[in-house]
Amino acid sequence: MPWDDFATRHEEIWIDLSSGELFCMPAYPSQHQIEYVKSLLKPITCELGLRAFERDVVENAVQKLVDRAYMDPLLRSSLGLQGTETFESHTNLGTTDDPISEPLEHMSLGSGSAGPRVGVWPEAAGGPQGPSQSEGQGQWGGPVLTSDGQKVPALAIEYKAPHKLSVDEAITGLESEIQPERDVINKDGQCFAFTARRLTAAVVTQLFSYMIGKGIQYGY
Fold it and tell me: Model-level pTM greater than 0.85?
């Protein structure tokens, strides 16, 4: 779904950040440290590799920024940081099962059958645990807020290796609105555009299903 007010919200957050007392204090690693991390990066060949890449390149930097913002009480309040934040894996990343390989008609936006239900945070799910790990999972992770000893996922991130969903396929698949029943389910097509839309719809369906099951508002 398009995030129509992203630019406005982004500007509001930067205004909040710039008004904080810690804004002028460096939080990012030095250029030398960044070059060292770059030298250790490896080609992405699977979800585990993608997970490691995102952790080293994105999540660690975001963690530093959030930790610094949390130190400022006013900034912590304006950004809605209700607890400490860490990035954690939502499931066992070692699984080889991947619902993206299943036919899209087997996936449901409402039932949650496409996404994992591993019960990592049962208090956030608000219901009984779902299928076991053997029933198929995606590769999930994201920031987790910890407050009063309770862990609540704040954002769902689905990791898809480039050989399963390439950048070109994602861009093509997201060029226009997709209505699964109208555009994908029980439809046949051999062209690149149709394949891209089908794969993208499957990934979005998996992620959305997982978000519903865990009660998470945001994901990518």
Answer: no
